[in-house]
Amino acid sequence: MQTVIEKLLEGEETQNLHKIEVAANILKEGGLVAFPTETVYGLGADALNPAAADRIYRAKGRPSDNPLIVHIYCMDDLQKIAAYIPAKAKRLADHFWPGPLTMIFKKRDNVPAETTGGLDTVAVRMPNHPLALALIEAAGGFIAAPSANTSGKPSPTLAEHVKEDMDGRIPMILDGGAVGIGIESTIVDFSEETPMVLRPGYITPDMMKEVIGEIRIDPGLAGEDLSVRPKAPGMKYKHYAPKAELILVNGAQEKVQQTINNLTKEAVESGRTVGVIGTDESCGCYHYGIVKSIGTRSDEDTIARHLYGILREFDEQDVDIIYSESFSTPRIGQAIMNRLLKAAGHQVIEV
Ligand code: TXA
Ligand code: MG
């Protein structure tokens, strides 16, 4: 299959609309289209068509018990797929939709088991991206879309990343340039009494607490006790993995830099290709290996935005081992560390 990449350009509204129309027709016929959202690129299919949802699993090589998020473009459509919408969920939607927040509800019968990985619940999100919203509307309103990476690879934040993973596997990629946020949406489960965060993201528990009060965090998220399984099936798989071994170094900045310099010196001397993930502030302090800045500590959003891209760059440069600073900052730092720890298989050196 040939994969067509359509660039959507600012100021070219008529042409963009035409391209979105073509993409929507592919979706309506049960095909797959990758498209930008504000978090990461999604791999879309008609969420109410079982055969279409099935194609997503095959294109990604994704385990079939890992459910998909259904993307909608208007509030009225939520009740068409969710059987019951608690008042608190409605309040979060009013506050944060369109935006990087996914909520889980008991599903209605029209949502096929293929979309929900066999669960009786459905994950729903209204993305904050004009092209995504236009595409969802044109395609009928309900687009199932996981991140558009091969299962186990870092999520795509550029159309080029999607091409790396999906070239020849899907008919179309809509290229809307770099995404804004760079890590996947926050997931909150509303299918039980107290709302529970299943995946941290840009919308933090504190931001949600201000709107709805008490909110729990899935105990399986900590990842330290392997007997406590995370509730979101996707959070249990080894994920976001670069090809190289990734090790985080955590502690006071000066000690971290010293340790990384010692370890990278050793690695280089033993003939290994080594990478370092630092920040704009620290990169000048590293003396060995391929050093990359992930962003600036004065604006954590830049770190989220570059995280997956950096892991992919290191893959291309065939490094054997990557040492990274850690980011135990509040706010989005929690989501960044959740992804980094998973990419590192929880290997952390405390200094
Ligand atoms: O930002 C995002 O959410 C992106 C963009 C494309 O919207 N999408 C995304 O989808 O990250 P995906 O498939 O890569 O991650 C979906 C996560 C998985 O961990 C999955 O297990 C969980 O959501 N999930 C989906 N439906 C669920 C359900 N009914 N119950 C529990 N977890 C669910
Ligand atoms: Mg994903």
Describe the structure.
- The protein has eleven helices and 16 strands.
- It has 351 residues and is an alpha/beta fold.
- Helix 8 (205-212) links the parallel strand 10 (196-199) and strand 11.
- It is globular, with a radius of gyration of 20 Å.
- The termini are far apart.
- The relative contact order is 0.14.
- The model has no long low-confidence stretch (mean pLDDT 94).
Which descriptors would you attach to this protein?
351 residues, DHBP synthase, 2 domains, five-stranded parallel sheet, 19% strand, globular, binds threonylcarbamoyladenylate, binds magnesium ion
State the CATH superfamily name of the largest domain: DHBP synthase
Order of helices and strands: EHEEHEHHEHEHEHEEEHEEHEEHEHE
Q: What is the fold named in CATH at topology level of the largest domain?
A: DHBP synthase
Which regions have little confidence, pLDDT < 50, spanning 5+ residues? none
Q: What radius of gyration results from the CA coordinates?
A: 20 Å
How many angstroms separate the termini?
A: 50 Å
**What's the architecture of the largest domain, going by CATH?**
Alpha-Beta Complex
Most strands sheet: 11 strands, mixed
For this structure, what is the CATH class of the largest domain?
Alpha Beta
The distinct ligands, each listed once, are: threonylcarbamoyladenylate, magnesium ion
Give the strand order, joined by hyphens, for the main sheet. Answer: 1-8-2-3-7-4-6-5-9-10-11
